[in-house]
Amino acid sequence: MIPPLLDALGYFDLPPGRLATLVTFLEMTERPPPRALPPRPDLVLVPWPRNDRDGYRRLFRAVGEPWLWTSRLRLDEAGLARILEDPAVDLFRLERDGRPIGLLELDFREAGQCELAFFGLVPEAVGSGAGRWLMERALERAWRPGVRRFWVHTCHLDHPAALGFYIRSGFRPYKFAIEIFEDPRLSGLLPREAAPQVPLLEPRLTRPGSPAQRSTGVSGLAPHSLHEPS
User: Fold this and answer.
1) Is residue 209 part of a domain?
2) Terminus-to-terminus CA distance in the chain, angstroms?
3) 10 Å Cβ neighbour count for 95?
4) Which of 46-55, 125-134, 190-199, 212-221 is the least confident region?
5) What's the confidence (pLDDT) of residue 207?
6) How far, CA to CA in Å, does 64 sit from each of 14, 59, 101, 112, 123?
7) Are 37 and 133 a contacting pair, CB within 8 Å?
């Protein structure tokens, strides 16, 4: 059943301090043919030391801060340890010439499925071909015996090329959703200068009777977190 508010059409105000994003869910049910890529001797995929939570957070920030990733940063030590130390979660860092430039996290905790939980590069590595190389490594590892479905989601706050990249990699869109979440820059979880492409609206600047409010008469969507906006 569609919630009554989301069954309506038009514009809806967000409560002060909230952001919304359109999430696209994608999947593949068989491994696509491997792509022939040029050799990349400068790249190596390294299993993550599962007890290195501080290092994980640093790399997670380096990769995800431009896109407002925060889910792992919100976890306390015990919560993060449960994920990093779970044998059904495979964690890797991508290194180029010995320096970490990317993150890959594959989640096998649901039987018969693998989620591409986190996949990304630090900003200076985007466009270098490292992402294509990393995706091939992800496909090799995701399609282990017994896996029938490999899936991922992305959103419009992610890199503009992310959705097309996933489709070219063999994923097919199958569902849309709207995610509403608190702006992490207002709480201090991320610096205020993070993701400058997303306007930072101070709650005190939100005024009653804005054009959107006057045109729809509806405001105050309730928060609902689907997953990391990635």
Assistant:
1) yes
2) 26
3) 15
4) 212-221
5) 54
6) 24, 8, 12, 28, 9
7) yes
Q: State CA 194 to chain mean position distance.
A: 15
Query: CA–CA separation, 120 vs 72, rounded Å?
Result: 14
Regarding beta strands 99-107 and 89-96, do their DSSP bridges make them parallel or antiparallel, or are they unpaired? antiparallel
Residue numbers of the domain that contains 158: 4-216
The domain that contains 16 carries what CATH number?
Answer: 3.40.630.30
pTM: 0.86
pLDDT in tens, 21-31: 999 999 999 99
Residues facing 176 on adjacent strands: 24
Q: Which DSSP letter does residue 228 get?
A: -
Compute the distance between CA of residue 136 and CA of residue 35 in angstroms, rounded to an integer. Answer: 8
Residue 228 lies in a domain: no
Lowest model confidence (mean pLDDT) among 25-34, 53-62, 119-128, 218-227: 218-227
What is the average pLDDT across 91-116? 97
- Contact of 183 with 147, CB cutoff 8 Å: no
